Here is the input.
Amino acid sequence: MVRNKNILLGVSGGIAVYKACALTSKLTQQGANVKVMMTESATKFVSPLTFQALSRNPVYTDTFDEKNPAKIAHIDVADWADIAIIAPATANMIGKMANGLADDMLSTTLLATQASVYIAPAMNVHMYAHPAVIKNMKQLDEWGYHFIEPGAGYLACGYVGKGRLEEPESIIDAVAEHQKSNGLFTGKKVLVSAGPTQERVDPVRFFTNRSSGKMGFAIAEAAANMGGEVTLVAGAVNLETSNKNINRIDVTTAAEMFETMHQQFQANDIVIKAAAVADYRPKQVYDEKMKKQSNDWVVEMERTKDILQSLGDSKQGQFLVGFAAETSDALGHGIKKLQKKNLDAIVINNVSVDGAGFGGDTNIVTYVNNSQQPKDIPLTSKYEVASQLMTLIAHDMKDEAK
Ligand code: PMT
Here is the structure.
């Protein structure tokens, strides 16, 4: 998977720099084109000349060392790279990346690149467990950077614990494995719905639910990173999208989401409904703000249309995936929805469990397809849940096509 790939190897300053030499050598032997970029601290451990000899390319260390006046070196390398691997990634480099800092050539290039970025941390065990480092890694994970976890064992600082740079072979395996899934949706159109709807009762009040949109946005991001052309129909959320492969359409009410999903439906190959759509809306909507009264205010609610059901009823070859937000007998209720709504698969989350469902950055789900073999995805980030779901969907679509 790395043959003929343009790989930017970012080396930041830690004792594990010596392992980056072996990584450069192995990547080159496997047919990758490797360009190494070192921070100033990294050059204190190993000379750039070593990396130049191993990669057979010039090594970059200084943003202002512009050798070719026709190009701006850090933008040129950023555009050239298909893949960027940061190994070793120090706590400092991770901190810079998570905060958008660009005060050396490597951090500047990483801000400019559109390549898939893999981060292999290496540091002291206590640094790795520090809340600041954990927060920075979480931020990068949410932005779609991929981590190659450090191993545990004897560390150069004398401690025994987690923080040792993963072995070069394992780093290449992890990158190759991930790259394999990268093109899974190339040439496919993916429609995703996310977030809550809002149902107005007067100009200042509405009914809604606790969905933040994070799960659906993570699915859109994962699908786009796997090569899909994504349309994201977003309810009332406070989230941003910057991926150029995601076309975002904002809606507010269940009725607007119904219209938009139906307009987009036929043009898509895969449709995933992670949105939390209102099942009921106020029967009467007031043009003026309702004045407070001394007695109770009873709001009569009417049913909204079930979007997923109507997509299931009108489906023509699309792979249709629903979500089920349950609080008891999650699997039983989820499978009933799979059958009733004519779906190809359903993603069930028990939203009463800690770490699952609404609002947070993690989820715990069970994916069930029509062969009804449940596949559990245990507690992990919503982006990781999304990546695993997309891989399962790609697999099932291949099986259906046979
Ligand atoms: O957004 P987050 O904060 O990240 O939280 C994620 C989530 C909990 C919202 C998500 O994981 C999830 O479970 N989404 C589905 C929520 C839901 O509405 O579940 P449901 O069991 O009520 O509905 C079943 C399915 O029917 C869903 O795919 C839903 O989009 C769809 N539906 C429901 C009602 C309706 N009128 N039209 C629909 O299409």
Summary: The first strand starts at residue 6 and ends at 11. The pocket of PMT is lined by residues 195, 211-215, 254, 273-277, 279, 304, 306-308, 322-325, 337, 349, 351, 357-359 (CB under 6 Å). The CA atoms of residues 154 and 160 lie 4 Å apart. The chain has two domains: 6-181, 189-401.
